[in-house]
């Protein structure tokens, strides 16, 4: 593919200078249109030579309005990046809606080096390309525009440029170890890149192969492609800023259309046994024993660089907070924290809905508990009409991919749904009204949500069916009895954590 490409096309400096004023104006107008349309843009620069990528970055940094541009350069992983799932470092730097993210090296770079230097087998390489394709699909379906440029030059040109770089440190250019690795394994590197392109080239995230033998031709071709692609993209979407409408306000449909169909058969929750009565035998003694065990296991996990991530979902007043407090009483606050999820901030709305959850993924050995989570997309946002039908439906796949990456990194992920019936919830609401220090927990939304109980139960049923995977199954906890629920959660956590630790022995 690349080796057979015709190289050596060029543009004279004189012609380049003639074209520059018009192209710079068009590029700025293109950037303004993207801002007005609230479209996030990802520009990925990959290729044979770091000098090519660096010069294109410098050019775009000069021609774009830098107030709307974010330049990201990725080299070797930092300790914090290495201790988190593979894509964490990228999600952490994704541009907000209306902004442009320029990636000097990307989620492709490291995999190409590893594959070309025989540090990675073909199957592992292909698996990672599938994850990349899923990532780019997730971003594109959320409204992002993705442009991927492969800046290609011959082996002879690569060798010549490295010689120039060695003698040109005074100009600020420095060759990297990766440049010499690519030159040494040039043929394997190109074959790996060709395979990556074949596996990840899709209409919503296409590759553009650019002849980089001549600097002027390379630069102008990249600029022209950006302008053309953006113009085409914007012509197919409304010019008004609607990218965040689905998250920031209910969809503009009738109330009947917003509500999911009521179930015609029992749901998973309706079949859950709520027969526990009274306090479990020796509750406080059993609780203390489980907490002591969890303290020991959590420190063992910390020293083995194993994280646990807990997701708590459930009805209002189902006891999520109480269960979380019993866990945090046992886990040292230096290695664990609780993330309480509320309505998204303006900054969070400006990104993909998973962005704010990726930011809080703990480093290896640390632990995070989510009090409500990314499942809001398929629960409250679905039922209340904050997410369009196609948005919450595709979220099942996006969430499964997200959780698979957490597991692949070596973390333990447990998901708890705490279930109470309507009568028990009503009793707890009334009790909160009469207890001064609990009154703040009860809001108008809590009362209003009771009117949508059946809709929520349908949504929960679908959520469990679509996202209870073999690597991240749901644990449904009967929680009419708080004490039974707390014991059940702690037993499940201790059991799964103990098994995880044994796997590493």
From TrEMBL:
Gene3D superfamilies: P-loop containing nucleotide triphosphate hydrolases (3.40.50.300)
Pfam families: PPK2
Enzyme Commission number(s): 2.7.4.33
Lineage per the UniProt record: Bacteria, Pseudomonadati, Pseudomonadota, Gammaproteobacteria, Celerinatantimonadaceae
Name of protein: Polyphosphate:AMP phosphotransferase
Key words, A-Z: Transferase
Residue span(s) of domain Polyphosphate kinase-2-related: 12-233, 281-503
Membrane-crossing segments per the record: none
KW ATP-binding (keyword) present: no
Superkingdom of source: Bacteria
GO molecular function: transferase activity
């Amino acid at each position: 593919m690349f080796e057979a490409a015709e190289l050596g096309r060029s543009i004279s400096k004189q012609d380049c200078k003639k074209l520059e004023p018009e192209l710079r104006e068009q590029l700025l107008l293109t950037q303004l249109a993207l801002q007005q349309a609230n479209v996030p843009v990802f520009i990925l620069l990959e290729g044979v030579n770091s000098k090519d990528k660096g010069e294109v970055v410098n050019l775009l940094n000069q021609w774009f309005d830098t107030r709307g541009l974010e330049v990201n350069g990725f080299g070797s992983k930092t300790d914090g990046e290495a201790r988190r799932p593979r894509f964490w470092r990228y999600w952490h730097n994704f541009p907000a809606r209306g902004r442009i993210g320029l990636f000097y090296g990307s989620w492709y770079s490291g995999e190409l080096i590893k594959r070309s230097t025989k540090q990675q087998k073909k199957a592992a390489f292909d698996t990672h390309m599938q994850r990349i394709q899923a990532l780019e699909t997730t971003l594109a379906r959320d409204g992002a525009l993705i442009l991927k440029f492969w800046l290609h030059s011959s082996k002879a040109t690569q060798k010549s440029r490295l010689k120039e770089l060695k003698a040109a440190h005074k100009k600020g250019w420095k060759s990297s170890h990766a440049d010499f690795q690519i030159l040494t394994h040039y043929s394997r590197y190109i074959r790996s890149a060709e395979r990556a392109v074949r596996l990840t080239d899709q209409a919503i995230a296409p590759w553009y192969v650019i002849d980089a033998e001549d600097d002027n031709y390379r630069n102008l071709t990249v600029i022209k492609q950006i302008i053309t692609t953006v113009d085409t993209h914007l012509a197919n979407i409304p010019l008004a800023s609607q990218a965040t409408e689905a998250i920031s306000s209910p969809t503009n449909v009738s109330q009947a259309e917003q509500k999911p169909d009521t179930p015609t058969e029992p749901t998973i929750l309706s079949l859950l046994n709520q027969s526990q009565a009274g306090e479990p035998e020796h509750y406080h003694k059993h609780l203390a024993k489980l907490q002591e065990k969890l303290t020991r296991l959590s420190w063992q996990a910390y020293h083995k660089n194993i994280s646990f991530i807990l997701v708590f979902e459930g009805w209002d007043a189902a006891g999520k907070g109480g269960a979380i407090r019993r866990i945090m009483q046992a886990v040292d606050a230096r290695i664990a924290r609780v993330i309480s999820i509320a309505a998204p901030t303006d900054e969070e709305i400006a990104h993909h809905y998973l962005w704010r959850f990726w930011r809080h993924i703990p480093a290896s050995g640390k632990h995070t508990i989510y009090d409500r989570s990314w499942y809001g997309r398929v629960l409250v946002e679905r039922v209340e009409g904050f997410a369009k039908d196609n948005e919450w439906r595709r979220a099942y796949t996006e969430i499964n991919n997200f959780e698979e990456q957490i597991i692949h990194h070596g973390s333990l992920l447990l998901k708890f749904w705490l279930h109470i019936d309507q009568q028990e919830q009503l009793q707890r609401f009334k009790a909160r009204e009469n207890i001064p220090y609990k009154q703040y927990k009860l809001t108008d939304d809590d009362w209003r949500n009771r009117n949508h109980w059946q809709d929520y139960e349908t949504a929960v049923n679908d959520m469990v069916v679509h996202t209870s995977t073999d690597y991240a199954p749901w644990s449904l906890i009967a929680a009419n009895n708080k004490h039974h629920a707390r014991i059940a959660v702690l037993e499940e956590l201790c059991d799964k954590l103990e098994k995880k630790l044994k796997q590493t022995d």
